[in-house]
Amino acid sequence: MAIWAIVPAAGVGKRMGTEIPKPYLSICGKTVLQHTLERLGRVRALSGVVLVLHPDDETPFPAGIPQSLPVRIARGGHERCHSVLNALKILEPELASDDWVLVHDAARPCLRPSEVDRLIEAAGKHDVGGVLAAPVTDTLKRANNGGEVAGTVDRTALYRALTPQLFRFNILNRALQLAADQNRIVTDDSAAIECLGLSPLIVPGSTDNIKITQESDLLLAELIMQQQNSQGVEIP
Prior knowledge:
Blueprint: E1 3-9, E2 26-27, E3 30-31, H1 32-40, E4 48-53, E5 71-75, H2 80-91, E6 100-103, H3 113-123, E7 129-135, E8 140-143, E9 149-153, E10 159-168, H4 169-181, H5 189-194, E11 201-204, H6 216-230
Parallel strand pairs: 1-4, 1-6, 4-5, 7-11
Antiparallel strand pairs: 2-3, 6-10, 7-10, 8-9
Helix pairs in contact: 2-4
């Protein structure tokens, strides 16, 4: 059974307000992308990695992935879902329909490799696959058209979707292709799978698996990495 990782890194990070693309911003002396690749590179079950870069990205290939692990380069599409679909098309000639694809955002550099192992162990026994997710802890409000509170949402069964997300190749390929054919934008891979009427498994993930979205997230990621190192987390 093959498990290939897809790492979308083609975004320009408009919300960051920086000229440097988000994957190449620096945390603790390394780029966000390098941290992410180093952590994925410690997952022994992976068969290879497809790195999805912006079409205009001519940056030299970043360090981080073990030389023994095959690497492919795909080019990004208009949205994240199109970028992942481009990566799947590269993998199509060499993956069986029931092989696995692990999609992880380049902008999540604080990932614990042990969590990927746990996702693979749990979701790998599922017919569809699964997602890392963290329970919602904040009180949630629903707003009306006037920007006023219209009610409080029950958070009992609500989760924040994280990455990686692990799915069988044929199911994810079919789901994202259908979304593209219908001009439907999905913000994560699970959303595309759900539109097929399928239910991925929820695998509990750590709240420190943050996504770099705003400039303040860089400092938060640095603090998280320092804490992880002090705890002896198995990271570079």
